[in-house]
């Protein structure tokens, strides 16, 4: 791959992600991405991680797993074919890493989609009530709340929605709610979608409203309250990989 024109940091990230999306099945390397945007591997990796919260190869893997989720739910392709389409040569490696990133195995995701279609998800929580609580306000517009919505708020070890959250709640409506904190998982993330969304849009939402609390929260010193301000997911956000509905079982 020839070295590209040097780009400013925001354009760098957008250009690198665009290249990733167009080459999910190819063996892109950090060197390929850095050459594409005209930076050294070191400076590219640093700027990309600062902008997205993930190293370039972690972000590429997230895009691959997001596409794998979609393919598993909209096609009947064998898992081994989906594995190859998103750039993995080893089915066992793909299955293990998919389970870590999504929270359920590839074949189990298909069964979960069928289960959601037959038994719609209703509000539930997976929390430790003994932990200190924080009052969480959901900043959703009145227009947004005209249609019934489900909103998941959950605790993650990093400020990215990869893997299942360690704890959280699925809420109906606009809150507020007193949420127990979670030891060793200080980052509060949220996603809101229509309550009647189909299985595909619940497990791989195309246009969710998302929010991230930008400071870690610890049970030892939780803030009195948190306001989660929702906005449409940016195309460059880390895709929502967590199969949140699997937590209700």
Automatic annotation (TrEMBL):
This is AraC family transcriptional regulator. InterPro entries: AraC_XylS_family_regulators, Homeodomain-like_sf, HTH_AraC. GO terms for molecular function: DNA-binding transcription factor activity; sequence-specific DNA binding. PANTHER family: HTH-TYPE TRANSCRIPTIONAL ACTIVATOR RHAS-RELATED. It comes from the Bacteria. The keyword Transcription applies. Coiled coil: none annotated. Pfam families: HTH_18. The keyword DNA repair does not apply. Keywords: DNA-binding, Transcription, Transcription regulation. Residues 14-112 form the HTH araC/xylS-type domain.
């Amino acid at each position: 791959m020839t070295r590209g024109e040097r780009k400013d940091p925001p354009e760098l990230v957008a250009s690198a992600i665009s290249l990733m999306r167009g080459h999910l099945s190819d063996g892109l390397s950090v060197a390929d991405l850095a050459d594409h945007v005209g930076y050294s591997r070191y400076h590219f990796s640093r700027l990309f991680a600062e902008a997205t919260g993930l190293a370039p190869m972690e972000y590429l893997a997230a895009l691959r797993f997001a596409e794998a989720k979609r393919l598993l739910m909209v096609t009947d392709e064998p898992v081994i074919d989906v594995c190859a389409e998103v750039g993995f040569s080893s089915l066992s490696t793909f299955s293990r890493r998919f389970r870590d990133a999504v929270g359920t195995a590839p074949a189990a995701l298909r069964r979960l989609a069928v289960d959601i279609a037959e038994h719609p998800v209703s509000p539930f929580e997976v929390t430790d009530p003994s932990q200190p609580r924080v009052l969480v306000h959901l900043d959703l517009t009145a227009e947004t709340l005209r249609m019934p919505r489900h909103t998941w708020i959950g605790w993650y070890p990093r400020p990215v929605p990869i893997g299942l959250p360690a704890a959280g709640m699925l809420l109906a409506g606009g809150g507020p709610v007193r949420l127990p904190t979670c030891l060793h998982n200080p980052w509060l993330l949220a996603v809101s979608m229509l309550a009647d969304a189909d299985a595909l849009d619940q497990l791989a939402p195309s246009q969710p409203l998302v929010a991230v609390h930008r400071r870690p929260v610890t049970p030892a010193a939780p803030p009195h309250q948190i306001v989660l301000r929702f906005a449409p997911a940016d195309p460059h956000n880390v895709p929502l990989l967590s199969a949140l509905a699997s937590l209700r079982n």
